[in-house]
Design a protein that fits this description.
Blueprint (H helix, E strand, L loop, with lengths): L3 E3 L10 E3 L7 E4 L7 E3 H5 L2 E13 L4 E13 L3 E5 L6 H8 L7 E6 L2 E2 L5 H11 E5 L10 H12 L3 H14 L15 H13 L5 E5 L7 H16 L3 E5 L3 H4 L4 E6 L2 E7 L5
Parallel strand pairs: 7-12, 7-13, 10-11, 11-12
Antiparallel strand pairs: 1-2, 2-3, 3-4, 5-6, 5-8, 8-9, 13-14
Helix pairs in contact: 4-5, 4-6
The structure holds adenosine-5'-triphosphate (ATP) and magnesium ion.
The site of magnesium ion (MG) has 3 residues, from helix 2.
Length: about 280
């Protein structure tokens, strides 16, 4: 593995970290206060994480084209905590899947740290997804046949993280979410709230820069939802950029910005007023 000192900030003229990977964007072990190493040279030079330009998503049938997203333009800066809201069928999940590189737009451009995702091949996109993005779903999507420990470990296996490193990273997650005693249980032996905690642990164990959560509290009681929103707020303070979808005004207020979607287009984009 490539391991070299990196002098990225030309003005500062001092080493800011060490390149530890050779991904589409090199990963730097940054000496950051929150001990969150997954930051890159590009991060430091370009603060805009996501740029969507005139994104369309449509499906063609024999006689007509149906738009799911139409001319979506969106910029997301690093460190934001953004909430997507809008009626059912508005296109929120479709947009999240495009941002998460699980789906592709029919037209338009998508830049992730200035890398043109719209021009990438499947393999490149899946590498980007694996290295930089954590995804949390409403229905948890845990693997029933795997224990809590194994579910959390899965993304690290895909990333090729070594055995000893995996052990310590999973242990840290179990500890963080108070799930050490539950590590050998299977998802069906957990409550909904606990399953979603495992879903969050799995999404962040690989230290993604972007956390996408599509109605993460949709299946939970309000107190469990509150716990999850507090976790998101803490993660955001630690440096992870978050985009969540929710129908709850209360959950939206944990974020810093609310983007409303209706009929496949962005209809409003506002900062959350502190104390409002
Ligand atoms: N593959 C597809 N083929 C045809 N229509 C689709 C496809 N995927 C999504 N749609 C349609 O696109 C629209 C947007 O769907 P999407 O799941 O993004 O909405 P949403 O805003 O997430 O809604 P909800 O709040 O109910 O989750 C819906 O009308 C849906 O039926
Ligand atoms: Mg949806």
């Amino acid at each position: 593995m490539l391991k070299t000192s990196l002098f990225c900030a030309s003005s500062a003229k001092k080493s800011i970290g060490t390149i530890v990977g050779k991904d589409p964007i090199p990963v730097i072990a940054l000496r950051s206060p929150w001990n969150h190493p997954a930051l890159t040279c590009s991060d430091l030079l370009y603060n805009t994480m996501i740029k969507l330009r005139d994104i369309d998503k449509y499906v063609d049938s024999r006689f007509q084209r149906t738009f799911i997203l139409k001319s979506v333009n969106l910029d997301v800066q690093q460190g934001e905590f953004l909430t997507l809201m809008g009626p059912s069928g508005a296109g929120k999940s479709t947009l999240m899947n495009i941002i998460g590189m699980l789906d592709e737009p029919s037209a338009g451009e998508y830049f992730f740290f200035d890398e043109p995702v719209h021009r990438m091949k499947e393999k490149q996109k899946s590498d980007m997804h694996k290295n930089y993005i954590g995804f949390i779903f409403q229905a948890y999507h845990l693997i029933d046949e795997l224990t809590v420990y194994e579910n959390i470990e899965t993304p690290l296996l895909y990333k090729g993280v070594s055995g000893s490193q995996r052990k310590s990273m999973v242990a840290e997650m179990l500890d963080r979410f108070n799930m050490v005693a539950k590590k050998d249980l299977f998802p069906e032996q957990l409550s909904g709230g606990q399953q979603q905690l495992v879903g969050i642990a799995r999404a962040i164990v690989g230290q993604p820069k972007l956390l996408l959560a599509d109605e993460p509290t949709g299946n939970l009681h309000s107190d469990q939802g509150k716990q999850i929103m507090e976790i998101f707020q803490k993660l955001n303070e630690e440096g992870i950029t978050i985009i969540q979808v929710t129908h709850s005004e209360e959950n939206a207020r944990y974020g810093k910005r609310i983007v409303k979607v209706a009929d496949g287009t962005i209809v409003s984009d506002e900062k959350v007023m502190v104390g409002a």
